[in-house]
Amino acid sequence: MNYIHNHILALIFALFAFHVYSQQNSFRTLERQFDSIENESSDKALLHAQEMVNYSIDSKNKTYLVSSYVKLATAYENLAKSDSAVVFYDKALDISRSVDSDTLFAFAVIRMSQLNSIRGDQEKIVALIFEALKKIENNPNPKQKHELYYKLSEVHRELGSFEKAEDYLQLIIKETELDYLLAAAYNSLGLIQYSNKEYDKGKANLLKSMELYKNQKDNHNICKILINLGAMHYKLKKLEKSKEYLIEASKLTKEFGYINLYSMVLINLSVIYHKEKDYEKELVYLKKAEELAKETGNYQSLSSIANNMILVYALQSDIKMVRRYIVRYRNAIDSLHNFRRNQKIFEIEAEYETSKKELEIARQKELVLTQRTHIVIAVVLVLLLSIILFMYIQRLKSQKLLYANQKELNEEKVSNLLDTHKLQKIKAYVDGQNKERERVSKDLHDGIGGNLAAIKMRLNRIKNKLPSELEPIITSVDSTYNEIRSISHDLMPKKINHLYFTDLMKELVGFSTSKDIEYKYYIHPEKKINNISESLQLTIYRIIQELITNINKHAQATEVSINITIHEEINVVNMMVEDNGNGFNTKKANSGVGLRSIKQRISDNSGLIKIDSNYGIGTIVCVELPIG
């Protein structure tokens, strides 16, 4: 039956793994298809991206959904529908935060940064870029880091900080081996040199960039390079060469549906014809650009086009058309103002919704963490209590009835704290227990211990007569004597009120030391340590006792240092126990009973513990416990 059961489980696992692999393969195919379609037609790319979103929702896969929203936003951006693009970029960012994937978040930031930069929202994009850089700083793959550096360089270039922008670009050119990043870096570097009037250098870098983009068949960026080359030759007053580049760009942008870029080409061509005083052709290109701007709702372009139209018609003395375009210019400016105001309201609402989602996600994470913590604490407590119970049964069988009564009284104390009579009864009983412990301890130490010591002395006197027969007997008596001393000592400190706590600690160190180990201890300030609460003193005592026991059993040390200090400025007691023994693996040692007991005591007192151990060097244990 077990054999059949195992095979069924293996079959289920194999089917599940195949399903996951098949799902991943299908989505990767959709992504590759989008990249190919994007270079052919922006309208088709939009439809394909919507299919990707539907597939991701059906698959209930948030990682796929982030990628799909980014692709959808990119398609809208290529169609000059920036409002829709912003909506889906923001959705991608929100989901990437909930998935808690650093690389996915960085991916969304990289794709959306260009749009936000065009819209003049540099402050927002810089904040997102640095947030993404922090998230991926430990990622060994530098690809996304370089992409984010490139986006930063673009922001600096647009703000006129050319030196800072060039620093990022040179770093990318030096470090990356990715052609698409090199192409983007050469393009930006060429634009900076163009702005600095270093036209020859700028042209060389733009041509380098275009060659790389042609190898990748990246038509969108090829169009951008052509526009940049056209603008550069215009500055060089090579108008015919400038027109060649721009006309080639107009064909490509129109063919592939890059509406934003097509509009930019038309405006640039109109500027050239204005320079040549060919106002009829200028008007042709301006009117085409105006149609596109109306179609896409680009009020910035509409205002710029209207302004150029006013100038052309003024030169032609067409007052009627001048007045018409003055009205259109004002309308475009008003619409642009309203759009920005509405966009600000939209962003505030989106920020509010995002904060609500983040708060809900944080609450869910906190709830899960709390539940897990409770489960872990419960398991640890159960294990710890089981171990403690087993040890007490083995070591203190003679006090079984006494401990049973103590447990009953403790339970009665918890449930009846407000009953004064019962509290007094419990106190009296506990005092009786302490007296009984003290009596048993003295009897063991003074009675049986004394007798064994006397027997050992007599055996030592006659040892020379019968050495072979008496040696094992003396060893056994010595071991029994030490065990009785240990039991007697463990029974005594349940109530630390018969002497100063610091004296008791010195007594513990003196009693527990091995003849092969040199112990040094430092307690300061003794007066204040003696005045801390009895419960905290008992905790310190037990921790030091357990650490000494572990050193004697396992460390094979020759030197041990014990320091107990009060730090008044932060109101804590600090303990540091250091040995020069073998050292140990701190991860594996977490399963030890003694160390778990120490950690539980520290946790019960809201303290901290740090263990530093190296093989062959030794171990340092630092403990901090709050006072009060």
Essential attributes:
77% helix; alpha+beta; 5 strands; 5-stranded mixed sheet; 628 residues
Q: What are the SSEs and their pairings?
A:
Layout: H1 2-38, H2 42-59, H3 62-78, H4 82-99, H5 102-118, H6 122-135, H7 143-158, H8 162-175, H9 179-195, H10 199-216, H11 219-235, H12 239-256, H13 259-275, H14 279-296, H15 299-315, H16 319-395, H17 400-415, H18 420-461, H19 467-491, H20 501-512, E1 518-524, H21 526-530, H22 534-555, E2 559-567, E3 572-579, H23 593-604, E4 608-614, E5 618-626
Parallel strand pairs: 1-2
Antiparallel strand pairs: 2-3, 3-5, 4-5
Helix pairs in contact: 1-2, 1-3, 2-3, 3-4, 3-5, 4-5, 4-16, 5-6, 5-7, 6-7, 7-8, 7-9, 8-9, 9-10, 10-11, 11-12, 11-13, 12-13, 13-14, 14-15, 15-16, 17-18, 18-19, 20-22, 22-23
Please explain how this structure is put together:
It is a single chain. This protein is of the alpha+beta class. It has 23 helices and five strands. The protein has helices at residues 2-38, 42-59, 62-78, 82-99, 102-118, 122-135, 143-158, 162-175, 179-195, 199-216, 219-235, 239-256, 259-275, 279-296, 299-315, 319-395, 400-415, 420-461, 467-491, 501-512, 526-530, 534-555, 593-604, and strands at residues 518-524, 559-567, 572-579, 608-614, 618-626. A five-stranded mixed sheet has the order 1-2-3-5-4. α1 runs parallel beside α3, α17 (400-415) runs antiparallel to α18 (420-461) and α18 runs antiparallel to α19. It is elongated.
